[in-house]
Amino acid sequence: MSEFTVYSVPGSPFGRAVLATFVEKNATYRFVTVPSLKSEAHLSRHPFGRVPVLEHDGFVLYETQGILRYLDRVLPEPALTPKDAKAAARMDQLMNVCDWYLFQGVNNIIGFHRIVGPRLMGLTPDEVAIANAMPKAHVVFSELSRLLGHKAYFVGEQAMLADLLIAPQLDFLAQTPEWKQLTANAPNLVSWLHRMNDRASLQTTTWERLMQSAKAA
Predict the structure, then answer these.
(1) Percent of the chain at pLDDT above 90?
(2) For residues 178 and 78, what is the distance between their CA atoms, to the nearest angstrom?
């Protein structure tokens, strides 16, 4: 099979979800760090200036959910989408919860002000913005905890695409002071994240590991 190329930046939870999927599939890929999201070269791949972008055999694809589902089709083993229609629908629902509620208004605020801004831009966290994001964050964590229930993974006993998409987001938030408060009534999410972080797909795609790889390249 021809080479897969992933354009992203170390630290991107969406990019990490794609890379983790490759590891789960035991497939090789080439990781290209994007130096500027607004460069002409990158905008030619992604007109909205985001990451990740996948290139495969001349086919260019952006939007993480689309990339994950594409990879699950062209790399069918092991399958990361449930065969059962209801379980697959639940997975799709969870992936949208991740994009629209966990990231938008929660991680893109709390994660940015606690981690990205200080680490990359030298910014001081905006405590007001963080406080304003917390009510929505509590709703999201409560719903994710309810949907996970007593299962090992979100849609059963095996990790699927939803787990790979959500884990990098929660792993980001686990590095913030808000994590303890958000998971006070959701111990199952804490246990689930430990299970995910024990997987090679998460261990080999951390911000630190990707930065080391980029420096060595």
Answers:
(1) 96
(2) 35
